[in-house]
Amino acid sequence: MPFQEFDLTALASADAYKLLSGVVIPRPIALITTRSADGVDNAAPFSFFGVLSHHPATVAVGVEPRADGSRKDTAQNILTTGVFTLHIPDVALADAVQAVAGPSAPEVDEIALNGLESVPGTFIDCPRLSAAPVAMECTFDQRLDLGPARDILIGTVRGLFVRQEAVNERLHVDPEKIDALGRLGGAVFATTRDRFSLG
Fold first, then answer.
1. Per-residue b/e over 2-32, b at no fewer than 16 CB within 10 Å?
2. What domains are defined for the chain?
3. What does the alpha-carbon distance between residue 116 and residue 131 come to, in Å, rounded to a whole number?
């Protein structure tokens, strides 16, 4: 079967993004809340993220800069305050995920602006979204410098919160109760509702 071949080192950045975001699918979405040094709450989704380790519990997220090259509020707040809360949104939060993806000025509280309910953090000083089935309260660990295209931020998970009915006494998580939202290319999303088992 023939393949198309691409030299990613020779492609324009936008073209490399289109290809990578189109083939690494579905990607889980990190709906991240932060708080600025001035106390303004921020929320934004990122699908360039993943869990890197369970011991220590470690996550990484790639935050693209604004069109003018300046850091987005999420990256700036994490680097300034050293904390963030990473949520796994469910399908019911899809509209909210899309809403908070839009640009807002740093002085705008995006959680309040979009009518999202939150509670204070338990392990860190950062709000946690009440409607998300999963939340991880994280402390910032390090930034990987891969160039201007993205801040790669690594954090340690201090506290994990899972919707009560989604995890049993043996710590097995029920994906149906999480109903996680995933991202494909562009503004196309996916669910985890179509599943099968092997073996």
1. eeeeeeeeeeeeeebbeeebeeeebbbbbbb
2. 25-182 (2.30.110.10)
3. 8
**What local confidence, expressed as pLDDT, does residue 199 receive?**
84
Q: What do you get for the CA distance between the two ends of the chain, in Å?
A: 28
Where do we find the tokens 């999202």?
116
- At 113 the pLDDT is 93
- How far does Cα 74 stand from its chain's mean position? 10
Q: 153-183: b or e for each residue (b if 16 or more CB lie within 10 Å)?
A: bbbbbbeebbbeebbeeeeeeeeeebbbbbb
pLDDT value of position 36: 97
Q: What is the pLDDT of residue 83?
A: 98
Residue 134 structure tokens: 């999963």
